Amino acid sequence: MTQMTLPRTVTFAAVLVFLPGLLAGQQRRRAPLRSPEVNADRTITFRVYAPLAKSVSVGGDMIQDQPRRPMTKDSAGIWSTTLGPFAPDIYDYTFQIDDVTVLDPVNPSVTLGPRTSSSLIEVPGGAPELWDPQPVPHGTVHVNWYESNVVGGLRAVYVYTPPGYEEGQERYPVLYLMHGAGFTQEGWTTTGRANLILDNLIAQGQAKPMVIVMPFGHPQVATTLGFNQPPASDRSLVAQDILGDIMPLVEKTYRVLTDADHRAIAGFSMGGNQSLTIGLDHPELFHWVAGFSAAIPRQQEALERTFATALADPDRTNATLKLLWTACGTDDRGWFPPNQTFAKLLDEKGVRHTFVTTPGAHQWQVWRRNLIALAPLLFVD
Amino acid sequence: MTQMTLPRTVTFAAVLVFLPGLLAGQQRRRAPLRSPEVNADRTITFRVYAPLAKSVSVGGDMIQDQPRRPMTKDSAGIWSTTLGPFAPDIYDYTFQIDDVTVLDPVNPSVTLGPRTSSSLIEVPGGAPELWDPQPVPHGTVHVNWYESNVVGGLRAVYVYTPPGYEEGQERYPVLYLMHGAGFTQEGWTTTGRANLILDNLIAQGQAKPMVIVMPFGHPQVATTLGFNQPPASDRSLVAQDILGDIMPLVEKTYRVLTDADHRAIAGFSMGGNQSLTIGLDHPELFHWVAGFSAAIPRQQEALERTFATALADPDRTNATLKLLWTACGTDDRGWFPPNQTFAKLLDEKGVRHTFVTTPGAHQWQVWRRNLIALAPLLFVD
Fold first, then answer.
1. Entry pTM
2. How far is residue B278 from each of residues A119, A122, A150, A315, measured CA to CA in Å?
3. Interface confidence (ipTM) of the complex
C-alpha cells in the first residue's frame, strides 16, 4: 500500500482557507433558487439572483424576436418575471444582466452553440408531445469521433439507430440531418429531440425505422475539445467532410442501405442550405432532399446559380428525386422570402416539389415540427 | 405545392421590428470577443464584456479553491485578467459579475452539471496528453435512453465501445464509471475525456480494450429533458438503477463479458462512494473496485458500517477481489482524511488494497489521471 501522512494541522488550516470561499459563495448560502418555474396555467416564472444589477431582462424564442422583457427585483436581490401562457413546447432563453447576456445560472438544461449557448425550458401540455419521452422502445444515439481529413482535426458525428437495431440484422435507410449556424452536432438530439421524435413516430407506425446521421455543420474541430477555434472559413469543407469522411464512416460502421433511394438529407437554416445544395448537387447520392427555413440566396439569379444542377434538366430531376421538400415559418422575416422565391422558381422550371408554410419564425418550434412532418414521407414508395 | 402569399408591407415592417433588436444586441455589434485565450507562455487571458458591472472576477480549478481573482475593466467595457502560467491540462472556470456566477458567454466548451455548469479551457503542452485527440483509432460513445423503473422516468446512460468494436465479434470486459455530484452522465466524456484516454491507452497497448458504462449518478430523470426536476432523494435508487436497469440493458445491447472477473466499477467523489459501496456490497458482480477522491464517511465507525460486507471476512474479500484501488489528492481537504482513514482501516483488517496519493485537490485534473493510472491495471491476470 502506498500512503502519505498528512500533518494534523492541515485540518485546522482547511477551515481557515475554506472560510473566504464560504463567505463569497452566496449561491451556496441561500436556499436554491428555482428557475425557471412552469406554472399550472402554462406561464413561466424566470428568476435570477443579481442583487447589484441595475437592470435584468429575459429574452428567448417563446417571445420570438420581440424585445427582451424586463424583470423586477425583490428585497432579497432576486429578479423575476412571469411570462405567457405559452403553447406546450420547448423554448430557449437567456438573461441579460445589465449589459451581459448569460445562461440561467441554475438551469441545467442547455443548448450549446459554437459561440453562444442558451438555457432551455419545456412547457408540458396535457398529453406528451411527439418530442417527449413516452413509454415506447428507444433508439440509441452514438457519438462517433473521427479525424476529419478535410477540416484537419477531431470532430464528432452523432448517429441515431432505431429501436431494435442492436438485436437485428436488418439494413436501414439513412437520413443526414443538419443543424443551423447557432448549434453543433448535438443540437438535433439535445434541443431538437430527433431521437425521441423518431422513437415515437416509429412506435406509432408513422415513420419507417431509419438511421439518422447528425454531422457538425461548421468547418472546425469539435467545440467540446476546448481549444481556441479557428473561425469558420471555407464552407465547402463541410460538404467534403460529409461525403469524404462521414459517409464512409457511417457505411462501414452501421447497417445502412447505401443506394440513393435509401438516403435522405435535410436540415434547417445554414443546414437547410447545406442539405439543399449537397442533396441537389448529388442526385447520384440523395433521392430525398429537404430544407427547413433554409438560409438560401435572396435573389432569383443567385438561386439559379446555386441550384443549377437541379434546374438544368427538370425532367431528369423529377425522374431522379423521390422528394424535394422545403418548409418555412411565415414569421421568419429573414428566410421566408427567399424560400418563397425558390418555390416559385422551382414551379416556373417545372421541378416537382412541396413547399410547406407554417406559423412561426426562425426557431426550433418550427424545425421539430418540420422533422415530424417530413419523417413519415421518407423512404415510402 | 402549398404556398402562402406574404404582403409586401411585411418586409418594411420587418426592418422596423428588427431595429430595437439590433440596437439592444450589443454582442452582435462589436467584434467577437476572444475568451479565454491561451498564450504562448501557458498563461490564460480571460475576458468578458460587462460595461455596467462594478466588479468582475474569475475562479476555477486552475486556482483550486483559492479566492476568485479580480478582473479589470478597459474603456470599452471589457473586463480581463491574465492568470498562470498553468501546467498543460483542462481547467474549468466561471466568471462572477457583481454577485452572479456565470459561464463565459463566448466560450462554447461547457461542462454541464445538474444544477450549475462551468466553462472549460485546455492549456496544451508541447506534446499531446493522453486526454487529447491523437491520430489513433477512436471508439464510439453511445447514448442509450431508457425508462428507469426505479427512478420513474427517462434517463440516459453513456457507453463507450473501443476501436474496432463494430467490425468484430469479440466480447469485452466492462468498466462502470461514475461521476461526482456536480456532473451528469456526460461528464466523463465531455470533461473527463474517458473515451479519448482509452483510445490512446489502447493504441499504446497500455490498457485492454474494454467497454465503459457511464450512468447518471443522481436519482432523477435526465436533466437535458428540461422538466423541473424533483430534488435528489433516496440515493440507494442509483444502485438499484445500475443493477436493475442499466446492467441488463448493457448486457443485452453490447458484446460484453458478464462474469465478475470482467466487470469493474470506479468513480470519483459521490461516484467514488457509489463505486466502493456498490462494488464491495456485490462481490458476486464486481471483482475490480476503485474510488477516486471518494466521498466516504469521515468516522471509522461509519466506515466500518458502510463497508461491513468487505470487512466481515477479509480472507474471502482478498480471495474474491482482483483489485481494490483508492486514490486521493493530498490537497483535497474534504476527502483526503477519510480516504486515509479508510486505507488504514483496510490495512488493520488485512484487506488487500492499493491507496494512491497524488498532488491535487478535489478536481478533474486528479480524476483524469486516476483513470489513466487505473485503466492499465484492469482485467489483467
1. 0.86
2. 34, 34, 46, 66
3. 0.80
